[in-house]
Amino acid sequence: MTSFSQSILKGYRILLADEYADPRTKDWFLVSSPVPLFVILASYLYFCTQIGPRYMESRKPYELKNLLIVYNAAQVILSAYMVWEGCAVWSTYNWYCEPLDYSQNPVTLRMNNICWVYYMAKITELLDTVFFVLRKKDNQITVLHLFHHTLMPTVTFFGLRYVPTGHGTLFGLINSFVHVIMYSYYLVAGLGPEYQKYLWWKKHLTGLQLVQFVIIFLHNIIPLFTDCGYKKFLHAPILIFSSTFIYMFGNFYVQSYLKKTKTENSNGKNKLH
Does residue 204 have an active-site annotation? Predict the structure, then answer.
């Protein structure tokens, strides 16, 4: 076995080792091992990029109107619940730097439960792309979309298994707040063409998604310069994750709105001449 293979095997054993996992969450559903999650994500990507498009190639798009209304409404309610619970816990937290807490403190246990619900939400959100495939909305299935939906449950798994408390959990609270607004948008959009006039804020939704990652990035820089009981190395993946999405969402925003507006204005001026 090569040294590279040995390193991979060692890393995998660390992921499975209970000694590194939080004893309060390590045996929870879809948390005891990364294998089920990786199987779900691999199946998701294979369906959305291979099986699904081939299946739909010679078929008309499914409407799924009633299903989407129920799905989007459920996501709004679920996200709102996590915002409510998250705000209740963070009202007792130190916003500047909240340490890790492995005790049986009721507030901490409450945060553990919120983290698990958030993890389940990230898995159910994979259905976003499945619905795009079945409705033949191929233009919505971008690299950014697939990357975002694959990475979010992965990051959440590791957070829930190893550090389901403390400073890093603000990420989930902010993201849940954004999703209340995002799925409200999808809910209204799915009601029919007559509701399109109420969707003027689509551009601002993309901007809000970008702002959330800026806030998360800045919030996770703070503990790097202070010692409050939250391990500094834990911020590295969050900083990499958030900075990656700042770039990707920022580029999407520029390409979809700023350059598009500039082109439309330029075309308008040409018509006047």
Answer: no
